[in-house]
Specification:
This protein is α/β, with parallel strands linked by helices. The chain has a single domain, classed as 3-Layer(aba) Sandwich (Rossmann fold). The chain is 32% helix and 29% strand. The strands form four sheets. Strands 1, 6, 7, 8, 9, 10, 11 and 12 form an eight-stranded mixed sheet that branches. A two-stranded antiparallel sheet has the order 2-5.
Length: 212
């Protein structure tokens, strides 16, 4: 799976362990999801283009510098759970614009249904799009979100999918339909169970983030 970048950092692994633990309370779960999101954001933003931006130092000397135009970045958290990564990315990209896509899963068929789509209809204003979701399981919700972006005119080459926990099934579904999209994951887990949950996984990230 060379098309997937997996985080390699001891503190990212530390956050993943906390997120997996069934005894982690809601406060610590939120903190660790945000912490993992920061590592994903650092890795995901490696490919951003910086522009030359010299500065004058307090010694009245001009020094070379580089700046990133974060206003040309679009963040797309997949509701609900994707909101858990939003603040992490905004910490590094404070001028980024934020779109919202709400996708629910039918627990009988595992198919994804869209209930909210607020996407800017001017894709030319954005150089990079980060889709945020803690879980890449069956890939149905992820593909639905990517289809919405594609229908709005966003090219695959602009999009990076950032997730915390992924499995091969979801990765393969994205790559079969959107081969130019990059994926960054905190970890790649073993498999899906019979009801479409990641194993060993972290349970339902949305529930643990907001309801428990």
């Amino acid at each position: 799976m060379s098309f997937v970048t997996v985080l390699k950092h001891p503190l990212a692994s530390h956050h993943i362990r906390i997120l997996r633990d069934r005894d982690t309370d809601i406060e610590m779960f939120r903190r660790s999801l945000k912490g993992l999101g920061l590592f994903l954001a650092v890795e995901a933003t490696r490919q951003l283009q910086a522009v030359s931006s010299p500065v004058i130092t307090p010694l009245d000397v001009e020094a070379p510098g580089e700046a990133v135009e974060s206003g040309r970045v679009l963040l797309v958290p997949v509701l609900r759970a994707g909101l858990g990564f939003l603040d992490s990315f905004l910490e590094l990209l404070p001028a980024a614009r934020v779109a919202h896509v709400g996708v629910s899963r039918d627990h009988e068929t595992l198919q994804a249904c869209t209930y909210l789509s607020v996407i800017p209809q001017n894709p030319e204003l954005f150089d990079t799009v980060f889709v945020l979701d803690p879980m890449l399981a069956t890939g149905n919700s992820s593909v639905k979100t990517l289809e919405i972006l594609q229908d709005a005119g966003y090219s695959q080459e602009k999009i990076i999918f950032a997730c915390g926990f992924a499995v091969e099934e979801g990765i393969n579904q994205i790559k079969s339909k959107f081969p130019a999209i990059g994926i960054i994951a905190g970890t790649i887990d073993w498999k899906l169970n019979e009801v479409g949950y990641i194993v060993p996984g972290l349970g339902d990230a949305g529930d643990r983030l907001y309801l428990i």
